[in-house]
Amino acid sequence: MASRGQTATPTLGKAMLNKYARAFFTRVLTPFAAFLIRRGVSPDTVTLIGTAGVVAGALVFYPMGEFFWGTVVITLFVFSDLVDGNMARQLGRSSRWGAFLDSTLDRVADGAIFGGFILWYAGGGDDLVLCAVSIFCLASGQVVSYTKARGESIGLPVAVNGLVERAERLVISLVAAGFAGLHKFGVPGIQYLLPVALWIVAVGSLVTLIQRVVTVRRESAEAEAAAQGEQDDEDEQQNASHGSEAAT
């Protein structure tokens, strides 16, 4: 789940901490990361374990309505974002494989978290509207990520900061879920935070998707116009060259 490749992007663990907290936890976790390295544990293994923990926390606790404890478990495993990145830096590793693995497992973790919400609202939560909203959050999040990856794969920069990107989607959802879980401890009214957060994420994801599609369309048109301009210049040069040869 940590970004260790050449095209690193902010991960959930990093997004949940400001730069000062990240520096603190980096110092705290560096000895632990070094210990794992001495034990022969690879950064990829930590990434896999971290993802498994997030998936378990989301799919075991959330469908039962245990949002507080589910979020606690997820948050603990989210720190693997910092550990595996720390290990990779100590080992001097930065690879395309690491970037691919991280991005792929990020999608798995996202699916588990929103899948947990879907199972709750389809079952014990008994709210088909919020179930549908959760499904939209899950699907739109995957599509938002795909639009950027696909745009970059065809050579476009996709230079846009969307309104609600992956880190924002998950931080909003997890923080709201954690606080909503306090309802079982007797805190009144706080359970409504999660539905509000899901609606915010759904609307924000839709706006972000539109932003990225519009950006890709604009960048594609600009790239094609530039390519056509270069082709026209080449044609003019060739015509000029042929004209000068004919004159001689």
TrEMBL record:
Biased composition (Polar residues): 239-248
GO biological process annotation, one example: phospholipid biosynthetic process
Region annotation (Disordered) ranges: 224-248
Principal location class: membrane
A GO molecular-function annotation: phosphotransferase activity, for other substituted phosphate groups
Class of this enzyme: transferase
Cofactor note: Contains a di-nuclear catalytic Mg(2+) center.
Cofactor(s) listed in the protein's UniProt record: Mg(2+)
UniProt cross-references to PROSITE patterns, sorted A to Z: CDP_ALCOHOL_P_TRANSF
Pfam families: CDP-OH_P_transf
InterPro entries xref list: CDP-OH_P_trans, CDP-OH_PTrfase_TM_dom, CDP_ALCOHOL_P_TRANSF_CS, PIP_synthase_PgsA1
Places the protein is found: Cell membrane
Residue sites binding Mg(2+) 1 per the record: 81, 84, 102
List of residues binding Mg(2+) 2: 81, 102, 106
Role, per record: Catalyzes the conjugation of the 1'-hydroxyl group of D-myo-inositol-3-phosphate (also named L-myo-inositol-1-phosphate) with a lipid tail of cytidine diphosphate diacylglycerol (CDP-DAG), forming phosphatidylinositol phosphate (PIP) and CMP. PIP is a precursor of phosphatidylinositol (PI) which is an essential lipid required for cell wall formation.
Protein name per its UniProtKB record: Phosphatidylinositol phosphate synthase
Species for this entry: Streptomyces paradoxus
